## 1
Amino acid sequence: MAAAEPKPPAGAAAAGRLARGCWSAFWDYETPKVIVVKNRRLGVVYRAVQLLILLYFVWYVFIVQKSYQDSETGPESSVITKVKGITFSERKVWDVEEYVKPPEGGSVFSIITRIEVTPSQTLGTCPESVRVSNASCDTDEDCVAERLDMLGSGLRTGRCVPYYQGSAKTCEVWGWCPVEDGASVSQFLGKMAPNFTILIKNSIHYPKFQFSKGNIEHRKDGYLKRCTFDEVSDPYCPIFKLGFIVEQAGENFTELAHTGGVIGVIINWDCDLDLSASKCNPKYSFRRLDPKHVPASSGYNFRFAKYYKVNGSATRTLIKAYGIRIDVIVHGQAGKFSLIPTIINLATALTSIGVGSFLCDWILLTFMNKNKVYSHKKFDKVCTPRRSSGSWPVTLALVLGQAPPPPCPCSADPGQSLAAPPPWPCPASAPSEQMADTPASEPSRQDSTLTDPRGLAQL
């Protein structure tokens, strides 16, 4: 007698049915249900939201922001500067080699407009400056010998000596004497400074688009020797007068020359490379960069010294310089049409139009008088079995529509006969009020939908 063949386990059979059901459902096509609501106010809201979204994308995103372009910010840049002019003070004539620091002609440089000179300083002993804290004294006991104050002028000797003028006394120090406050002389260089000319030579390069350009016109007739910058007539003559720069920054030149300050020359290269290269032009703007209205840190000054020998001893002239520092700042952005950002922004625009549908659905199902009727028309309710008739794969297959529905009634009456099961899926109970614009043939259409949930009979 032949041995009976072993039956496959129930779990394997259920898994096979689930796999076949998922494979079959993979090739199904689903489409949303469309309901037309004849309501003028809701329609106005829907079209208004769509119009606002379209205006935002068409005007701001595509026209103003030019989001159809691939862009690059921060061009590679080089700046070369050169100052020309001559001025004088109460004691001497100054040329460009003396009042421009540093002389290399970079993007940051200073033009000295006032100096405080302490001449003939030598290494020795002298009274400390009264501006140094704890420098005032009455007797030698007030001065600690070999004390070094980081904000002072030298190493203290321990003696209390009379100050340079007046009856005050300060501690004696060993250092460069006399100290700055005791013998400094002020000189003003700003009388002719407004007429100084500054050449700012700038060239930029956008590596992504292989685009380069400079701010000087290519002419061989000595154009730069006789021109100055004018935004309309000479935009490619980058020669600016110092007085013009200070005026455009909104500052008073005499006041700025006495206290010093920092002026920014901003060159902006915004280029639309879909147009010709002649449309890509530099735009200049000027503004003060240092905190003008903060007394503790306003103004600009620095110190330097000139060294020489007198009778074999080291001597120096200390100069505290006040001036106008120029910072040349270059920035910009270039853009050119590219298919990828265009497609991305178009897809974003088309997707954003759906916000109008979401908003109107929320109004329709929340605030409208017949919101329950609209909800019944919009959503179909499907009966699910009260008990699981098998393992979870079978239940999932039932939901996917790949197995016959279980003989469970949709109604709550437990005594109802199972001989005539309700249709699958079964609708919720009909609402008490009907829509005014529902045609007379709607019930028959609903009946056919209920008996044929997938609508295959109408295809």
## 2
Amino acid sequence: MSTTTTLPAWQLSDRDLTSRLLTTQRQQNVAYAAQLETIRELEARGALPEGYTSTSAYLATILHVTLREARARIAQATGTLPLTWKALSAGEITAQHAAVIAEFLADAPRWLTPEDYTVAEDTLVTLAAQANPSVVRRAATRLKIYWDNDPADVPGSPDLDHGLDPDSVPDAGSDSDSGSRREEAARPWREFRWQWTQAGRFRFSGNVDHETGTLIEQLLVPLAAPDPATTPDTPDPRTPSERHGDALAAIVDLAARTPDLPAKAGERAVATVTVDLETLRSTAKTVVAEDESVLSAAGLRRILCDAKVYPAVLGTEGQVLDLGRSARTATNAQRRALAIRDRGCTFPGCDRSPKWTTPHHIVHWAHGGPTDLNNLASCCERHHRLLHHSGWKIVLRDQAVHWIPPSILDPEQKPLRNTAHNPPPAPLGHSPRQAARPRPAPAPPPSAAAS
């Protein structure tokens, strides 16, 4: 037995403390997999002591957990989750990860093929190995939204196929668009309520449609950024809500006296949407914007009527081939290229979208690193700071950013690629006319002891 595992924590070095944390977490994950294996066998045998009417009631009593938690563990133990079982038994994901994945897949549409089901599980398990359960849950929610769209709206659906005509509207009897949808497109629902208080303050509230909300957000974000600190000990004293209030005041002031718009990273508000021509031609398909919202192709075309559109030349593997030129700091074109290539912060497990990131020189400018796409990576503020003040390093391999952890976290220092921004896997058989296909039979989980 290692001395590290027997010594009291106060006798360990800083490095050994981290090593014990990682080891004990892995052991805890493996132990949970062993417990689920036991629950599965208990449920299969029906081996309940006299006086208990259900396995869940028995587990809640002897494990001192709630009945809801007991039922959740039974669902995890008896579900069809071979990839989750494998990762959990190897100690690579936690009990919370397993719970999120099991809950999501239990509600998966019945029309999914076994291949769809496996791809979805693999997507979430891969992300779980590098991200916390909250990020995995958001990815699962994103996938659910993608699945829950009307079958005619899912890429690959064999339904309607309209030409690229912004004025084309389906017939009144078409199932793909109702009268209420056409009315919403012509006159979106927006509300704004305001009043003057006795103290002379202007109070307001309301809500707007998605397209207007996206524009407002794009205007607020750059103007609400914290002011640079004059010294390390004097950060911006304003709260986030105060900064957004000041940003709104600036927008109103600009609108009152000039047609100029606020700048975001040096240019007017820009939203990046990656879409192929085939999808843009069809009103029956959907696209995912950089904020992970799902838009119809028709809705996207409405946005593009008033937007600045930048075409990008993409290679067969999706890498940006021609967009942007080198400079001391990243140009606007390079920022758009990074948004397309990186899709957001590149740190493993981070799901911050492009608007929350800044370009980072992989080889620092002061050390001779050029400002071109092959030497830039998108990082959010938190992970940009981590990169400068820890042992993490960045490399670019096959047009994908990989992070190399410090040896204290991984002695082998295996490069990690972020999968939090990967698009939802396209279902193979999304059509209401297809009969539901049977799910694969639950496979016995791998023995946790073998890990």
## 3
Amino acid sequence: MVFQKAVHPAATRAYRDPEYRHPALPGNMQRDNFAIIVERVSPRLGVGLAAAHAFVRLAAMTRPSDWTSQVRTPFIYAEAGEVAKMLGLSQPRTRAITAELERAGLIERRTAANGSRSRAAGTGLYFGAAIARVDELMALDDQLTEERQRAIFLRGQRSTAKRYLKHTLERLSEISPYCSEAAAIRQAAAAWPSADRLHRMDLATLAAHVDEADQLCRAGLDLLEKREKTSGGPLENERPYIQDTTKESSVSCNEPVDMQSAGKPAQDKIHVMPPDGGPNCNEKNVDAASGAFKSEFIARLGPQRLFNLASPEMQLYLCGRAEPEYLRFYDFVWAAERRVPELGISPDAWNTAREVMGEDSAMLSILILDARKSEPGNIIFKPGGYLRAMTDRYRRGELHLIRSLIGLSERQRAGHG
């Protein structure tokens, strides 16, 4: 006995319901935009790539106005053989694809008793089933977009762990070349999936791997700290703090916030100045420190001091790693990478900041942005645009991160006073 897959209800009942007799696309959505959405979500509907592409091509054979009409439904009345020719497929393959689309609830096939199609008889391939599901398909598309963004951030976090672990193992090789524990960590890292495999992982598997990579990196850093201690080498957390310059004269510059910017995309032109103030701000003249800081220099700020300057949300992440005085710079990068999507900053804005500024300055930029986002009178409506503005200022040599950290410290002190 041969069992056939059930046809999606939208292709049989919902479309024929009088309420959905002629469903129309909402708002300004047009045929081609909708077809692209269908193609993107097709894997979640059980539709293969070939069938999804065929849907786009079939939709293009209909009148665009029918997709937004309240009195007509888009359809194709050409014979199956003609449709196969237009798709460049064999008739059996075309029949299989249209059957696949019908099972997924994206089209409805109406044929006469002899299998023929005609405009007069009202037979052919109808797209009302898909249009009736527009809200569902748009919600699914939004969900997939969020998942893609999440996957991009997760892959970036794995890249960070891999990079730090590589440098850690290199340092271990220098001071303890025959360390068996380092060899075990190196062997475990060698078994990590390739970057290509990461793209094929589902979110749960990818997140689990990223956690494992983070734990292995921390194990490597723990081992390095132990070996450096026994060999007399410098420990990151024992480096002296940068000289406290908060007692020097400084001016706080907070330019007015554009209250009309809420809700606009993060890539729009920003109206909130980066934390070093506006073009006429005297705070820029407090010191001449460059924004191009080396990792060793930034480490001198000290973990406790950086922790105290971070936002409560970032501090919550950091507390799960270690006591503030034992935090490593890697922990701050790790926490910043998790705050980035929560702040609504796109992967592109974050990656651009890292490429332009380097990971150290990009991390400090997130820490500063995050800490300032809820300051009274300094509401940041568009964190993504704010970060892009900071990146542009860095390119021009106008971003002074250390001075911004000093400003944060002073404002915190004044607030607690």
## 4
Amino acid sequence: MPAAVRFGVNYTPSQGWFHHWLDFDLDAVRADLDSVSALGLDHIRVFPLWPYFQPDRALIRPRAVEDLVRLVDAAGERGLDVNVDGLQGHLSSFDFLPAWTRTWHRRNLFTDPEVLDGQAAYLRTLAAALADRPNFLGMTLGNEVNQFSAGPHPDPDRATADQIDAWLERMLAACEKGAPGKLHLHAEYDATWYQDDMPFTPAQAARRGALTAVHSWVFNGTAQRHGPTSVASEHHAAYLIELSKAWAEEPHRPVWLQEVGAPAPLVPAEHAAAFTEATVANALDCPDLWGITWWCSHDVSRDLADFPELEYSLGLLTNDRRPKDLARALSRAARDHSYAPAPRTTALTVPADPAARTRCAPGGDVFEAFFRLTADGARPTTVLDTRAADQDHLVARALTEVVTPDQVLRTPRGGTRS
């Protein structure tokens, strides 16, 4: 019997958003966590803002670290485990980078030796401060830090895939040194899987760290192209889970759906609960799923200016901590412990060449073929084209049928694949 899937939420404080670290209010945090715990969730993911915690390369503020520990302890009192993201990094359309990496002190985030030293010290310090907390799951290096490494970022820190690989290895090692044996990982937005020139690669995502993390957002062209109630939109998270498995070396490497949400207006407010229910049900049909962590806990307050409109309404709970219908949908799933999906035995080939990733993106032939198969009830997964004839690999993953995108797309709907 598979282990139960973890259900959690990305914690967005109801008061002051992530700026709450500037004037940390433990009572407000406790009230937020009470409202999260009441949904029956078992973990949260939290986001120290890097410039607030390490404003100088040689200064990691003890008071900020202490506040983080207090938050983790408060979560533990409510039965919530905690994953901590370190290098924030990028959140809700805003970049938060310390001044010692920008403008007059401009240094590459992924290659400059002094920046690397500072980052490693920071991650190690946070991990060490929490290492003895039983409810501390581990560190995520940062939130979607790949967006700093290539376009469409307006001022990217360019790096090669080899340089990114070295960066990942060093930063994960720093987390491990601080908190040995914890669940340390990295997490990127879907350009890792979809963008040809992204130096963060699918192989890195599926092989480095304790597990693979995917972030699913249908505003990436999926909902625009297919609509909010389409097979593609409601199975997009499941697609990323299964797409990641093509690059994994371990046949049953766990995958964490670390971010997924219902972004308005592409997912209309009146459809958000149904979208949540469908997305979660389809993700739960994926073997080897570690957990689902919704984005996000609480709405952003309308007292704060300049956020993109969709950011104000992504919460499971309102800004005054009242649960929405989508919160109830997630809560029902979290209380159901019947996770036991059948193996997925049909594999769609995907290009191993990272310069061909757009084929996996919305509109690409891999993407469209996957959802054709899904609509036909095939429950597909994926396999690299370089492994499609590797019988040992196929057997290890219980794969009995391998199809190419062109085979799927040239077959009439409901027809037999050859």
